[in-house]
Sequence to fold (391 residues):
Amino acid sequence: MAATQYLPPMPATLGDAGDFLKRELAPFLGRLNVMLRCMLTSAIVIIGSMTLEVPELALSLLVVFYVTQSNVVLTRLVDAMFIVGSTLAIGLSILLLKFTFDYPLLRIVAASLLFFGSVYLIRVLKIGVVFFIVAIVVIYVQSFVDRTDQADVLIRAVLWVWVAVNYPIALTLVVNTLLLPAEPQLQLKAEIHRQLTALQTRLTQLIDGTTNAAPIALAAVQQGALALQKLLRFATMRDPHYCEHQALQLACVATVSRLYRGASELPDTLAGTSAARLAILRELHTNVRALDESVTSGKAYRYVGAAAPEERSAVDLVPALAELQRALHAYADLVASGEEPGKPSAREPMLAPDAWTNPAYMRFSLKTLLAVLICYVFYNAVDCRAFIRSC
Fold:
């Protein structure tokens, strides 16, 4: 089941802004863990930089917050890419200064072109995060030239940037590996449990005839499907078991997403619920709980119960219930057959298919470059460094 990226609409009114903030600041699974890891790593970086007099503390903290990811697999992947990117950025910066040190206009133009290209590659490459740090470092180094006309001092400052970027990466890797590691396998099971629990709550509501359960929005369904696919990808990278049975795990994730979508389409109440319909509701509730337990324990899932003909006709009257039953039966039959489903779809290409035809990438790069150049001019015009030192 493919999922597309869902971006919530920006607030248009004051009331919408309040709802937007409430939604964005709401707690979610793993948020406290990420916050604690960021806070601990930042505290260590601040103490280390001030004690050892490592310059560019602000840049070091920026790296900490960007490198700390939702789980240990993603954190290690971003760490490796940032190390490669920062090394490439320092090399490009030194090479740029070598040929343009005495020509300010040429230096700014060349740095702008490098920044523009890096931002463009961020959007079109699968490993675009490498060029994120390249863009930041290349344009940040240009502010050093305005402070000194001594080449050796300038190169020393540029090399210190490499230290300021990479030692927080090492600290982040240590903290995320040894302290409070967020394993994608556990996160995947927790997300599956959350979605199946929401479905069980909706089924219980229909069985009891209550209306106190919160509805499931389409946005939550889309985000849930995307989260499951991402977590499965990271779990496959982390655990050999998931890698060996990737196709079956993908079928499980697709089934859970299908069930969660069905939960969002269930009516609030079922007027005049018959005994046959109640029986099928209880059967669905039992099987959803059994699926949840099978994912948690790692045991094979089997469909519990068999609906009578009159119960099947009753469930067909509610399309969402029929969809839930078909999804559970399909996954149970797949598990019972003992055969792996077809291989998962091919991996995404390294380069976006519309990399050279979509003007959105060009516009994004141009707007980002203009914003950076405006900040650079303002930064030098008001002499922010001298102001900070005086304070």
The chain has 16 helices and no strands. Confidence is low (pLDDT under 50) at residues 1-7. Residues 184-337 form one domain. Residues 135 and 367 are 14 Å apart (CA to CA).
